[in-house]
Design brief:
The protein is α/β, with parallel strands linked by helices. Helix 7 (224-233) packs across helix 10 (313-319), helix 14 (395-410) crosses helix 15 (423-435) and helix 15 (423-435) crosses helix 16 (445-467). The chain folds into four domains: 5-106, DNA Primase, Chain A (Alpha-Beta Complex); 114-201, DNA primase DNAg catalytic core, N-terminal domain (Alpha-Beta Complex), CATH 3.90.980.10; 204-358, 3-Layer(aba) Sandwich (Dna Topoisomerase Vi A Subunit, Chain: A, domain 2), CATH 3.40.1360; 366-641, 3-Layer(aba) Sandwich (Rossmann fold), CATH 3.40.50.300. Strand 8 (165-176) and strand 9 (179-187) form a beta hairpin. The protein has 21 helices and 27 strands. It has a ten-stranded mixed β-sheet with strand order 6-21-20-22-23-19-24-25-26-27, with helices on both faces. The structure holds zinc ion. Zinc ion binds next to loops.
């Protein structure tokens, strides 16, 4: 519950003028205030724990003294209320109101605690006093003293993990109305090029506050700060910098969407990597709104004293004769991006060659987590993998294992859209998987308390894993989605704004049942769902894992991709399809159960031996392998017969010992059928 009384304690008018305030020390790590700064809203401090904004962002009523937010770092940070419209909520609710967070998606914000904002002014003074750093900016980068001062570029030392120590570096603060909302650092040459960001703060666009102006007519997107600074220095104002080529989250897309008449240009590096990143950015912004600026060929001095090809905007202004007038000409000539992926042989060969150079062999880009499946199936960019299995076999678990592996191994973001399980339940399952805490339902108070403790440790392990890797895994439970179009919009929003590269939909039949099919038959309805997802996957160059249900219940027959419920064409829309099967265990006799005092969980009625069949694959012959399904920890792993037998024997002997202790049983009960999933 919100602590609403909090807002009524301070109702007096505040004396401060409309002048922008420096962020008070006690609010410096407030995520609530960070958000307000990032939006460029006028604000001032109200009291020791709150700020107010000039205009309520929700009802747009102007005038101080009605929209308040707690900015005290800690539990209530970001709690807000408007006295005019009466709306209130936590920070996430405000972000949802503003379109900066997608409803239904579990979004934990930035990773970890916020680092203190460093002293921008002091770093700037240090830069002006440092000859080497100034020499680099003025002579190598070609920046004027005026622009260096205007953008408050700074200098200092910072720890670079990859370089194993503190290095001298240039700091680029992101300023909105004089307030720093983010900082990016770059090592000072000759130190190897590395970057570092202010931890725990959302990375906005550099110079991105210009998007707050809804009358903006055009904007150019470039990569990084230096290109923007060079352009600003030459009188090009409507320009923003994307922080790093592999940026993921992009909540500023919401702002772009609002400015309908906006003409958007993208000018990325001239090399293949830059051009591919430009294409991806255009897809996320909306390919029909974007124009591609291609810089003319020019030469820049190389380190060896010769020359080499120039590739970015900063270099063009510095060495390629770039000017504001020529920039206007380039914009006028800018073509739209390719939509349908038509390619000519030259470009195609170039790309293939580049791809070959980037690989050591001809292995698929994405390998499977298990070697025994890895030689039967691999995935390439843009692939769709379908997974089919009967109830209780472990489709969701199998998909979760794949998603966790791809996010962890390849550093790309993914989202699991599960229609069956709430985000909280999926998180519990994920924690159990990554921390290997065996999650079992228990009604024994002692066991329940022990499990609680194990999970507390597990959460720490999971959190550390999440914080210490580049990839993000999101969960989404689209409980309020009413129509198929809403669902496609949700998936589109997740790709565009979170920048996810992996999407898992669990499952298609459940989705078909959830959204009305109108006059379409069930077959047509499923086909529309399948084709719609396939289209999104193609448009955005993502990878998709789709979970499918078979049309019949498993008796003794193996489930295959031919058993897809509803539409035979589903299988044609995927690049790879695998079926999962586990065999039912022989029924235990009631006497054996009574003797051992065991109750079997429903999950345990299937053998843990998981038969994985690659039914459909574009790149290989497919085949079968056996994996080990460990239901308790939501984990699929390599099947190791000896290890499994040893584990089962250990659990069995524990159980038997306990039973003996309790009831002094002397019978040596048969060992048939006991399993790791058995419970006392
Ligand atoms: Zn309001």
């Amino acid at each position: 519950m919100l602590e609403l009384q909090l807002f009524h304690r301070y109702t007096r008018a505040l004396p401060t003028s409309g002048e922008m305030m420096q962020v008070p020390v006690e609010f410096q790590t407030s995520k609530g205030l960070q958000y307000i700064l990032s939006k460029g809203w006028q604000w001032k401090q109200s009291d020791s724990e709150r700020i107010q904004t000039e205009t309520c962002p929700v009802c747009k009523k102007a005038g101080w003294g009605h929209f308040y937010m707690v900015c005290e770092p800690g539990k209530r940070d970001g709690l807000w209320q408007c006295m005019r419209c009466g709306k209130s909520g936590h920070l996430n609710a405000l972000k949802e109101e503003m379109g900066d967070k997608i409803q239904y998606v579990g979004d934990f914000g930035t990773k970890g605690d916020s680092e203190q904002m460093p002293n921008i002014e002091q770093m700037h003074e240090e830069l002006l006093a440092n000859e080497d750093a100034m020499d680099y900016l003025v002579n190598t980068r070609g920046f004027s003293l005026e622009i260096i001062k205007q953008q408050k570029i700074g200098f200092g030392k910072r720890f670079f993990k990859k370089l194993g120590g503190e290095k001298l570096c240039i700091s680029y603060p992101y300023l909105i109305d004089g307030n720093a909302v983010f900082v990016h650092w770059r090592t000072l040459p000759p130190t190897q090029k590395e970057f570092s960001s202010l931890k725990g703060w959302e990375a906005p666009l550099y110079n991105g506050h210009i998007l707050n102006d809804e009358s903006l007519k055009e904007v150019s997107f470039v990569e990084g700060e230096a290109n923007v600074i060079a352009a600003l220095d030459h009188g090009v104002k409507d320009i923003v910098g994307v922080p790093g080529a592999n940026f993921k989250k992009a909540m500023w897309l919401e702002q772009l969407d609002k400015i309908e008449e906006l003409k958007i240009y993208i000018c990325y590096d001239k090399d293949q990597v830059g051009q591919k990143a430009a294409q991806t950015l255009a897809s996320r912004i909306g390919i029909n709104r974007c124009y591609k600026i291609i810089l003319p060929d020019f030469e820049i001095p190389s380190d060896e004293g010769g020359t080499k090809k120039g590739k970015d905007l900063n270099e063009w202004f510095q060495h390629g004769g770039g000017s504001a007038e020529k920039w206007e000409t380039l914009k006028a000539q800018a073509p739209k991006f390719d939509v349908d992926g038509v390619t000519n042989i030259d470009d195609g060969l170039d790309r293939f060659e580049e791809e070959l150079n980037g690989k050591t062999g001809m292995m698929p880009k994405y390998m499977m987590p298990w070697p025994s499946l890895g030689d039967k199936l691999g995935l390439e960019e843009g692939d769709i993998l379908d997974i089919i299995a009967y109830e209780k076999i472990g489709k969701t678990t199998f998909g979760l294992n794949l998603m966790e592996y791809f996010v962890d191994q390849y550093g790309e973001d993914g989202i699991i859209i599960c229609l069956e399980m709430s985000n909280d339940r999926m998180i519990r399952k994920w924690v159990s998987h990554v921390s290997q805490v065996a999650d079992k339902v228990t009604f024994d108070p002692v066991e329940a308390a022990a499990l609680n403790e194990k999970f507390k440790e597990g959460v720490k392990v999971a959190r550390a894993k999440h914080h210490n890797r580049p990839g993000n895994l999101y969960f989404c439970y689209p409980k309020g989605v009413k129509t198929l179009d809403d669902f496609f919009k949700l998936v589109t929003d997740c790709i565009r704004r979170y920048g996810v590269k992996w999407i898992m939909v669990d499952n298609l039949q459940l989705l078909a049942g959830r959204v009305p099919r109108g006059t379409h038959s069930r077959m047509e309805h499923l086909d529309r769902i399948s084709k719609g997802l396939q289209g999104l996957n193609k448009d955005y160059g993502t990878q998709m894992i789709r979970i499918l249900q078979p049309h019949r219940n498993g008796n003794d027959e193996l489930c295959t991709m031919n058993d897809v419920d509803g539409s035979a064409s589903l299988a044609k829309d995927c690049d790879a399809g695998i079926s999962l099967n586990r065999s039912k265990k022989p029924e235990m006799s009631s006497q054996a159960l009574a003797t051992e005092g065991m109750v079997m969980s429903s999950d345990a009625s299937f053998d843990r031996k998981l038969l994985v069949t690659v039914d459909i694959t574009r790149y290989s012959a497919g085949g079968q392998c056996t994996l080990d399904y460990v239901g308790e920890t939501s984990t699929v792993r390599e099947y190791n017969h000896a290890q499994i037998k040893a584990e089962e024997a250990k659990i069995k002997s524990n159980i038997l010992n306990e039973v003996k202790d309790v009831s002094q049983l002397t019978t040596s009960a048969g060992t048939e059928g006991a399993s790791a999933q058995s419970e006392i």
